[in-house]
Design brief:
Radius of gyration: 20 Å
CATH class of the largest domain: Alpha Beta
CATH superfamily of the largest domain: P-loop containing nucleotide triphosphate hydrolases
Number of strands: 13
Structural class: alpha/beta
Strand content: 15-25%
Length: 285
Amino acid sequence: MTSPAPSYTVTRRHGVVVVTVHADFDLACSSRLGAALGDLIDGQGNLNVGVDLSRAATIDPAALGVLAAGEKLARHHGATLTVRGLPPGDSPRLSTPAATAGAPAHHLLELYEGDEVLADSVRAHLSAGLRGGETAIVVATEAHRRLFAAALSRRGVDVGAAQAAGRYLALDAGETLSRFMVDGAPDPTRFWTAMGGLVDAATGAGRRARIYGEMVALLWAEGNVAAAIALEDLWNELSGARPFSLLCAYPTAAFDPVESTALFRVLCEQHSRVDVSGGQVGADR
């Protein structure tokens, strides 16, 4: 039986390690490419890595974000990542100045093993803000929205009164994503309009806001890791212009596959603190 042709090959040319893609450059291929870039840069310590897409049969724009993740990983190690073969007008959405400057102190990452643990973390994050006069915004699945409201109520927070006063806003994660996703990637202009407008409305009376969001986790679970990383960057940009703190959460099972290791490190670099089921593993920056 003939073995299938590899989706990419790795060669060395004049001191540069080149990864050439030979198959459709889709989300599945980008996941394998992300693992390869992680091994070449993080595992083997190569400082000059190139990606050649000129031989790819097709290029899915939603898959290009893995190049942004690779660029972030390379920058973290003092390496460079170059790309050739992109069609005119396409962009790998490489890092923005806001992301390069480092994650702000109020962009938190929670890795959780169960919904009850998550609910406790979200309750602590939001209730402190509500009691301090801030507005709470929840962007989550319907089941999680119910879970968080119940957890807050058990700790004495009158969620109904906060909603009536416009200080507790609960939105569906999937529907909110649809407001700014274009061709499998978050559109920066639409994101700033949708989420910037939401934060402006929540903080219009001079309040700060506390946000819990799991849109990034939905994207990661769908295999669209590149879009999740790009969305984390957009949150960092928005936080530089709006008064809010943000808690993101991912289930720990999302990082079980070996190929997620390098991308997980990129994700951690986008946040100021990382907690695992309530136990801190990343120091405040």
